[in-house]
Specification:
The protein is α/β, with parallel strands linked by helices and 156 residues long. A four-stranded parallel sheet has the order 2-1-3-4, with helices on both faces. Helix 3 links the parallel strand 3 and strand 4. It is globular.
Length: 156
């Protein structure tokens, strides 16, 4: 295994003080969305983000999340964004379309704008999987958003 003791490493930084975070939540599968939002907002507060520096917009479903994120990113008001939602497998191909296209759109927003976007859109087989994963995924999204803002600042 290679050793890199002589290479400078940018350590992950989870300090959220002064950061402005926008969140977009799908209203489809609302119970899961609310669970994701609650866990995300709680974690952002623990990381030092003031509630006054958080904003939430809701959209009908996962496919609408990227457009709302793009609007938020373009506003210049946010340091990072979080996508919140849940797509649960059904009996048709629609699950794959929604899952793939929402993920592609979310990634495209951050690549086009340079604003970090944490993707907390769960894609699960059933309601039980979604409910069991929502709290952890919400917390992880908050951490990813804050970490990426700080990483990008370190590059400047």
């Amino acid at each position: 295994m290679a050793r890199f003791d002589d290479i400078f490493e940018l350590e992950p930084k989870l300090a959220g003080h002064g950061l402005r975070i926008g969140m977009v939540m799908s209203r489809f599968n609302a119970d899961v969305g609310e669970g994701l939002l609650s866990a995300c907002a709680d974690e952002l507060k623990k990381l030092g983000v003031a509630p006054a520096d958080m904003a939430i917009a809701t959209v009908p479903g996962a496919l609408e999340i990227p457009l709302a994120l793009l609007g938020m990113a373009g506003s210049g008001r946010f340091d990072a964004l979080v996508a919140l939602g849940c797509v649960i497998r059904g009996e048709t191909y629609h699950f794959e379309i929604v899952s793939n296209e929402s993920a592609r759109g979310i990634s495209e927003v951050q690549q086009r704008t340079g604003v970090p976007v944490a993707n907390a859109v769960l894609t699960t087989e059933d309601d039980d999987q979604a409910l069991s994963r929502m709290a952890q995924k919400g917390r992880e999204a908050a951490q990813a958003a804050v970490e990426m803002v700080n990483l990008l600042k370190a590059f400047r």
